TrEMBL record:
SMART domains for this protein: AAA
Lineage, broadest ranks: Bacteria, Bacillati, Actinomycetota, Actinomycetes, Pseudonocardiales
Protein name: Magnesium chelatase family protein
Classification via InterPro entries: AAA+_ATPase, CHLI-like, Mg_chelat-rel, Mg_chelat-rel_C, Mg_chelatse_chII-like_cat_dom, P-loop_NTPase, Ribosomal_Su5_D2-typ_SF, Ribsml_uS5_D2-typ_fold_subgr
A Pfam short name: Mg_chelatase_C
NCBIfam families linked to this entry: YifB family Mg chelatase-like AAA ATPase
Length: 504
């Protein structure tokens, strides 16, 4: 038996890449291909794809016993991204590729039977893991080069066929390359907040939500601007940093949502699934290795759930853990994967199923209204910091002056965010909504007179301890918007006003 050859690829575990060493040994038994190292069905089928691709690329397939070992052996390997590495490993072991040519090179791509190289999901997190493991180069399908260009510190090459990769490995040709993308791509202008008519309370609640990272519920008749307001919150949020933008791009890559061209987007995401979406679509799931859902695609952005009471109550309640912990844990037989999911939740709801333009025209029985709104459970609503009742748009508001524009409101939001960041960044928190209640009370205690409204409502059973902490966070955001050092009693009263404003 000849000395085994070694090449490298990368496996995905959630949104994290894990470098995989592939050893190829030829000889020592009856002809055949044996794949070891916990491959799934798609990877097991790679034996036939790889052999056909090698033959159609004009190379000779060894008519001997071939053993391909993927390490770490205890990690489940899934998908077709290992095809290119397996083909190169066999040909390196057969002597068709110089043994040192592929050292320090990560190989990713699915092979067609005729040798074409097809794109795969998750190229970005795989290359980030390869770079962090000390690899210097990567070869990917040419269609994935734009995605690969987001990774600095790694020379990425693109190929369209296996034959191109083999010629390059033999030193006979160059492969395609694109410059590394170091800056963000062009950002489209967000929707203009001034287009929303009236709704002073809702506009103020939207500003507070953006400034502090708070969750928001809007309840009111159809046509009052709930969806319009939700769409405009993204224009008020700060841009993502490079690390956050790369993390979001990695999630989109795993989900297959990054697109053919992948400039690094620094715009906070806005994800609005339909109310018929399943729990797997919302949280993540699927057969085999679970894929990220809407809550992860909204990481560091906004998840908007329109027609909240039309969602199944069990699906809505499944949001409680991500809202508290900022991540989703999905368990399968092959293990547990974690996807980041720190998002702002924006809920919109009508008062009742018939949803007339004016609430007094409702024809629903009281028990029907209660049943309709009860799908927004108490534990879920307790995690929503701001609640606002939308009013019907009147003729006066249509002909009146336009409200403040996005640029003006965003300026105040960014100043408030900067104040919160200065206060909390040394502790690892970015905004007021992320600060644990115990830390908020211990590090920055407020006078008893300021906290008196919270104490009274807790004693009356009208406010839970969690609700009091959330109201306190909103008070700090109101203080940041006002430019003061700490909240006063008026800020606490305003926080409670927005917590109790909705009819929900």
């Amino acid at each position: 038996m000849r000395h085994p050859a070694r090449v490298w690829s990368v496996a995905l575990h959630g949104v994290d890449g894990v470098p995989v060493e592939i050893e190829a040994a030829i000889g020592g038994g009856m002809p055949g291909v044996h794949l070891v190292g916990l491959p799934d069905a798609a990877l097991n089928e790679a034996k036939d794809r790889v052999r056909s691709a090698v033959v159609h690329s004009g190379r000779t397939w060894p008519n001997e016993r071939i053993v391909l070992a993927l390490s770490p052996a205890t990690l489940r390997k899934s998908g077709s991204r290992f095809d290119l590495a397996l083909a190169c490993g066999v040909l390196t072991a057969a002597g068709a590729i110089p043994p040192d040519r592929l050292r320090g090179t990560a190989l990713l791509g699915e092979l067609a039977l005729d040798g074409r190289l097809r794109p795969v999901r998750g190229v970005l997190p795989c290359l980030l893991a390869a770079r962090d493991a000390g690899m210097a180069r990567a070869v990917v399908p040419r269609a994935a080069l734009a995605e690969a260009a987001l990774v600095d510190g790694l020379a990425s090459y693109g190929a369209e066929t296996l034959s191109e990769v083999l010629d390059w490995a033999a030193g006979g040709r160059d492969l395609h390359r694109v410059p590394v993308v170091t800056g963000p791509g062009p950002v489209a202008a967000p929707p203009e907040l001034a287009e929303v008519l009236g709704q002073g309370d809702a506009r103020r609640a939207l500003e507070i939500a953006a400034a502090g990272g708070h969750h928001l519920l809007m309840v009111g008749p159809p046509g009052t601007g709930k969806t319009m307001l939700a769409q405009r919150i993204v224009g008020l949020l700060p841009e993502l940093g490079r690390a956050e933008a790369l993390q979001l791009a990695a999630i989109r890559s795993v989900a297959g949502r990054l697109g053919d061209s992948a400039p690094l987007s620094t715009l906070a995401p806005f994800v609005a699934p339909h109310h018929s979406a399943s729990a797997a679509a919302l949280l993540g799931g699927g057969s085999g290795v679970a894929r990220p859902g809407a809550v992860s695609l909204a990481h560091r952005g906004v998840l908007f759930l329109d027609e909240g009471p039309h969602w199944p109550a069990s699906v809505l309640d499944s949001l409680r853990t991500p809202l508290e912990e900022g991540e989703v844990r999905l368990s399968r037989a092959d293990g547990t994967v974690r996807y980041p999911a720190r998002f702002q939740l924006v809920l919109a709801a009508n008062h009742c199923p018939c949803a007339p333009p004016v609430d007094r025209d409702c024809t629903c029985r009281p028990d029907v209204r209660r049943r309709y709104m009860s799908r927004l459970s108490g534990p879920l609503l307790d995690r929503v910091d701001l609640r606002v009742a939308m009013e019907p748009v009147t003729g006066f508001s249509i002909t009146g002056e336009r409200g403040e524009g996005t640029v003006t409101v965003r300026g105040r939001v960014l100043e408030a965010r900067a104040a919160a960041d200065e206060r909390w960044s040394q502790h690892g928190w970015r905004c007021n909504a992320e600060v644990p209640g115990a830390e908020l009370r211990a590090r920055f205690p407020l006078p008893a007179a300021v906290l008196e409204p919270l104490e009274k409502r807790m004693e009356a059973g009208e406010l839970s301890a969690r609700g009091a902490d959330r109201a306190l966070r909103v008070a700090w955001t109101l203080s940041d918007l006002a430019g003061t050092d700490r909240p006063d009693r008026a800020d606490v009263d305003a926080a409670l006003y927005f917590r109790e404003r909705s009819a929900a």
